[in-house]
Amino acid sequence: MVTNPLDYVEPLGKAGASGLGTSKDNWKELIQNIKSHGMRPGVSIKPGTSVEEVYPLCFSLVEAENPVEMVLVMTVEPGFGGQKFMPGMMDKVRILRKKYPSLDIEVDGGLGPSTIDVAASAGANCIVVVYLTTSCNQYPSRQRHKRDDTFNILQL
Ligand SMILES: O=C(CO)[C@@H](O)[C@H](O)COP(=O)(O)O
């Protein structure tokens, strides 16, 4: 998560990033910009942010307005590793999966052997972990969401 994502679009695109998060304020411009640099747009929600906040970014009634392709549900407060997974965030994942069956839903924070299944069962298909690397491909029920250019894993 960064304060001014627009500043990072070009350098990250040139560096080879496949996806970049947008922000709430100028998301339409950002999504266009991210796509024009060959990346997939996503959005992150912190634990205190309600899931309803991302609805306008996930579905567009106007053809010219592109929605995000991924929502990252933070399962800890962003900032540092080693925090405890927040199971209460799984309601957000379940709601998003039901509402947007083909959306890439990522979870980040406190993920490991004891929590990955919880997140995957709720509907997450991309998992961020620090030491353990897995991917959407390992969850057969989620393979329908698999794409070659998916974000998969952000390995720190
Ligand atoms: O805080 C962030 C990003 O700001 C997370 O990406 C954590 O760094 C995840 O670390 P673990 O919970 O997996 O240790």
In short:
By secondary structure, the chain is of the alpha/beta class.
Which keywords apply here?
globular; single chain; five-stranded parallel beta sheet; TIM Barrel; 156 residues; disordered C terminus; alpha/beta; 5 strands; binds 5-O-phosphono-D-xylulose
Kindly state the percentage of residues in helix.
25-40%
- Summing up helix and strand content along with how strands pair, one would put the structural category as alpha/beta
Which value, in Å, is the CA radius of gyration?
15 Å
User: Could you give a short account of the major beta sheet?
Assistant: 5 strands, parallel
Give the CATH topology of the domain at 40-145.
TIM Barrel
Bound molecules: 5-O-phosphono-D-xylulose
What is the N-to-C succession of helices and strands?
HEHEHEHEHE
Q: What are the low-pLDDT stretches, counting only 5+ consecutive residues below 50?
A: 132-156
Percent of residues in β-strands: 5-15%
N-to-C terminal Cα separation, in Å?
14 Å
Per the principal axes of the C-alpha atoms, what is the gross shape?
A: globular
Which architecture of the domain at 40-145 does the CATH hierarchy give at level 2?
Alpha-Beta Barrel
Number of strands: 5
In the CATH hierarchy, what is the superfamily of the domain at 40-145?
Aldolase class I
EC number: 5.1.3.1
Enzyme class: isomerase
Catalytic activity: D-ribulose 5-phosphate = D-xylulose 5-phosphate
Cofactor: Mn(2+); Fe(2+); Zn(2+)
